[in-house]
User: What shape does this take?
Amino acid sequence: MIPYGRQWVDEDDIAAVVEVLRSDYLTTGPAVPAFEKALCQATGAAHAVALNSGTSALHAMYFAAGLQAGDEIITSPLTFAATANAALYLGASVRFVDVEPDTGNLDPERVEEAIGTRTRLIVPVDFAGHPADYDRLRPIAERHGLGLVADAAHSLGACYRGRPVGTLADASELSFHPVKPITTAEGGALLTDDPALAARAARFRTHGITKEPSELEQSDEGPWWYEQHDLGYNYRLTDVQAALGTSQMTKLGRFLERRRAIAAAYDEAFADLSAIELPGRRAHVEPGWHLYVIRTRDPRLRRPLFERLRAAGLGVQVHYLPVPWHPYYRALGFERGATPVAEHFYARSISLPLHPKLGPADVAHVIDVVRDALGEA
Ligand SMILES: Cc1ncc(COP(=O)(O)O)c(C=O)c1O
Assistant: This one.
């Protein structure tokens, strides 16, 4: 089975991990700030806070951006449940707003009309690694005094109008799950230019506790003194994982190049297929190509095509079943039909294999299988 995504771990990644295992630190030590520095250097963000998952990075980001019980976020239904769940963790609620029909990203046209008195944050999701339309979302956030924070779990390394992901919103969350642009096994990070937001997130990842002399209310007790200022969690990344992350960051450019080449090969090979639509792409965007999502024109074709591709050995997937459709969200009062564009997008989607380890023969094989399954070999 050729999986839709997977990690690429080399001997030098393994050596970096082994070196940490032999060192004095296993949990957060010098490897974590080194990884954070590598993330800042690659993205141009002023601050990075590494955490133990993308989900905890979302939780920390919402907290640090001021989300409180009773507030509301606006986000896309076409995402992994974590984007919405992290708002619920803080006692906030979620308003799902519909997406653009071709990119699957939050539709700025619909965001403004959805803003209510409780709205606090706008949370675009860079679906499949294609940055959302930040220059249209930013003025809406500013007009209404809202924060703009990104779920950039898919889009490390992507660019929007020449600006890298990590600098496009007030803060951006990344995930380092193995299928993501780089991996730390489990892991995540928050990127921001705002030092106060970064400091709040850094405290949140370790119980809300600080040892920073400048943050202490009382510092004359002794060198052992530390203070808890917020209710935080243990969301720390380990040095073992951070060392893997730093090693992976040296390959991000190569990984992205490979992803872009595969996407270009698919675009070319499938251009003439009338039964499917190819991923939408804005001219001013350089996507990270985390996923390559084709959409059958006829929703009735999705399931048989999916099953034919699976039977032929392609580990295809569907991203994403709309979050409000989950039983948990239905029990909160969400109903089908509220975001028809996203639901129509979901009903026709299939994610094809796309990861840097796919060689030219694999890519040619995927192309043959897809054309064959559509009866257009
Ligand atoms: C869009 C999106 N947001 C958030 C997450 C959560 O990241 P993690 O699995 O690292 O907690 C994921 C991961 O699957 C994701 O795809």
Q: What stands out?
A: Residues 252-373 form a domain with the Aspartate Aminotransferase, domain 1 fold (CATH 3.90.1150.10). The CA atoms of residues 299 and 347 lie 6 Å apart. The mean pLDDT is 97. Residues 252-270 form the longest helix (19 residues).
